[in-house]
Specification:
Blueprint lengths: L1 H18 L6 E7 L6 H9 L6 E7 L5 H7 L3 E5 L5 H10 L5 E4 L9 H12 L5 E7 L4 H14 L13 E4 H4 L10 H12 L3 E8 L7 H21 L8 H25 L5 H34 L5 H30 L2 E4 L2 E4 L5 E9 L2 E6 L2 E5 L7 E3 L2 H7 L6 E4 L2 E6 L8 E4 L1 H7 L6 E2 L4 H5 L3 E5 L7 E23 L2 E8 L4 E7 L2 E8 L7 E6 L2 E16 L9 E5 L1
Parallel strand pairs: 1-2, 1-4, 2-3, 5-7, 12-16, 13-15, 21-25
Antiparallel strand pairs: 4-6, 5-6, 8-9, 9-10, 10-11, 12-17, 14-15, 14-18, 18-19, 19-20, 19-24, 19-25, 21-22, 23-24
Helix pairs in contact: 6-9, 8-9, 10-11, 10-12
């Protein structure tokens, strides 16, 4: 039993050991330059905190007893042979420290108490922050109010610290290793800016009353100069300057215009929205807006760039600057032209229409309006099997139906079998559901993708029966047609009932014999002779007279069938 208890105790001890987290070590770095009167007191205050692992004083070329007093107070002292600046001293101390948390303290602090030091470190130890900066009540602050805050508000408006230049701050070593510390008085604000941009958790801690040795106006001028330089350098590095200058704005807006134009092209050719004209009109609107914006700002850029290149100073520097500033605009323009030329490289010109067929969708422009339509966008279509019990039906998208020149309710004959053309299932606007026997005859397989411009190639020479839209309900008229994949010279055929025009159609009339059916029976056979053209044919039933008028020259990719191919017209009185 005792062995079991002992084993249980060992397991608990091992678990506690595994779960115990090693506390973070703390280093304190104190840059000092001629601070013999205050440095010892700062060291003693820090030493009173029992969790401080090391205290490093960096003697930055002091000419007084700073080094001696720091050693006597118990700190590790590193010395520069000459004064190199606060930032350089901080960098030396950091490189020679080991703590997971590093606290930087000025050596000239007066009346510093342990509680204030603890406030600078405690939030990081508790996992509340990655960087701690301090604020405190003091009489000075001229550099902060007159230089730092105005510049920060201008370039980094998101930073709202009360005292962005307070010299006392702490940070995790993991953060400090990833930034470039300044060599001068810009080190404080540089850390704040880097932390902001890198997304580190920064907390401003109020440590109450504290006082420094008052700086002279000459010394403040040096501090202000170095702070301003650091803020401007960081603004340049992080892209804040090009965000506000006039040329940078024009370049960004030019890129925006070109990007909009490219987006518009993609809307026209690749974005699917129903009805299809929504994507077409939206895309064209985006293209027009993008072109207007791009042209306006490109003109401004050209004017500004000419002045820049022609400046009397170094031409190589001007050209280098030109490249860095203008390369985004140039690349955006190249992308836009690549997209445009890809579209134009897919142009097919047929008689009566211009068809632009990129990899996905087909943009069609009619040189002569077709049914009051000047352009449309169609395809592609994916082949799928027919639904069960629909072996004599083809479900076809509306766009594909328009390309074939047919309507829902029409019939198409494939391998001597008639197939009714019906609407697609909701949600299948790009699916062609074709029965197996028809697919086999057409040479199509399930999952084949057909572009709109290739659709007629698969259905060419097939016979179809198409209902004509009429302006009367007294009669129905269907026409036979042969689907072709190229346009040819054609005729316009007008149909009159009792001298009133009720409809018309367009088709290619070849020389030969054509049949007309009335109420299901063969009514008459007519002959088309090129040498002896006849432009009017009559069909009568009682008092009703149907006149078929052939006139006008046009083009069509549908051929009217001769007697050996099918029936020209079906007339049925209701």
């Amino acid at each position: 039993m005792s062995w079991i208890i002992l084993l249980f105790i060992l397991i608990i001890a091992s678990v506690k050991t595994m779960n115990s987290k090693k506390p973070m070590s703390v280093s304190v770095i104190i840059p000092a330059y001629n601070e013999e009167e205050t440095v010892a007191n700062v060291i003693k205050t820090v030493k009173s905190l029992n969790y401080i692992d090391e205290i490093i004083v960096v003697n930055d070329g002091s000419a007084d007893a700073t080094e001696k007093n720091a050693i006597e107070a118990g700190a590790t002292v590193l010395s520069h042979t000459k004064n190199r600046g606060k930032g350089a001293a901080i960098k030396t101390g950091f490189k020679n420290s080991n703590g997971d948390i590093v606290l930087f303290l000025d050596a000239d602090l007066q009346k510093l108490v342990p509680k204030q030091v603890d406030k600078m470190i405690r939030p990081i130890l508790n996992g509340e922050a990655d960087v701690i900066k301090t604020k405190f009540k003091r009489e000075a602050g001229r550099v902060t109010e007159l230089t730092a805050k105005p510049l920060l508000n201008f370039f980094f408006p998101e930073i709202k610290f009360e005292q962005p230049l307070s010299g006392q701050f702490a940070a995790k070593r993991s953060f400090l290793k990833n930034i470039e510390l300044e060599d001068d008085y810009g080190v404080d604000v540089g850390i704040v800016l880097d932390a902001d941009v890198m997304g580190a958790r920064v907390k401003e801690v109020d440590i109450g009353n504290i006082s420094h040795t008052m700086s002279s106006l000459y010394e403040l001028n040096i501090v202000a100069t170095e702070v301003v330089r650091t803020i401007v350098d960081r603004a340049n590095s992080y892209g804040r300057i090009t965000m506000i200058d006039s040329l940078g704005k024009s370049i960004r807006m030019g890129v925006f215009g070109l990007s909009l134009t490219t987006l518009g092209f993609f809307f026209v050719f690749f974005i699917r929205i129903r009805p299809s004209y929504v994507a077409l009109y939206l895309g064209l609107a985006i293209v027009i807006i993008g072109i207007i914006i791009a042209i306006y700002y490109v003109i401004k850029i050209i004017k500004a760039s000419i002045k820049t290149i022609l400046r009397p100073d170094s031409k190589s520097r001007n050209l280098k600057s030109f490249f860095y500033m203008h390369s985004p605009l140039i690349v955006s323009a190249l992308i836009m032209f690549a997209v445009l030329f890809t579209m134009l490289g897919s142009v097919h010109v047929d008689e009566g229409k211009i068809s632009i067929q990129p990899a996905a969708r087909n943009l069609i422009f009619w040189k002569q309006p077709v049914e009051n339509q000047t352009f449309d966008i169609r395809g592609p279509y994916t082949v799928d099997s027919a639904i069960e019990n629909e072996s004599s039906m083809i479900r076809i998208p509306e766009d594909a139906l328009k390309t074939l020149g047919l309507n829902y309710g029409d019939n198409i004959i494939i391998n001597r079998q008639s197939y009714l053309l019906n609407q697609p299932i909701p949600g299948e606007d790009s699916i062609l559901r074709i029965p197996y026997n028809a697919r086999n005859t057409l040479g199509l397989n399930v999952r084949d993708v057909i572009s709109d411009s290739e659709l007629r190639n698969f259905f060419k020479n097939l016979y179809a029966e198409k209902k004509l839209p009429l302006s009367t309900s007294n009669i129905t008229v269907s026409e036979g047609m042969i689907i072709k994949n190229t346009a040819d010279d054609a005729k316009t055929i007008n149909i009159y009932l009792n001298n009133k025009k009720i409809g018309s159609t367009i088709g290619v009339l070849k020389e030969g014999t054509y049949t007309i059916y009335l109420d299901g029976y063969l009514y008459k056979t007519i002959n088309i002779d090129k040498d002896k053209p006849q432009d009017t044919f009559l069909v009568t039933k009682g008092k009703n007279v149907i006149k078929i008028e052939v006139k006008g020259e046009t083009t069509s990719n549908n051929q009217l069938p001769t007697a050996d191919q099918g029936i020209l017209f079906f007339f049925n009185f209701t």
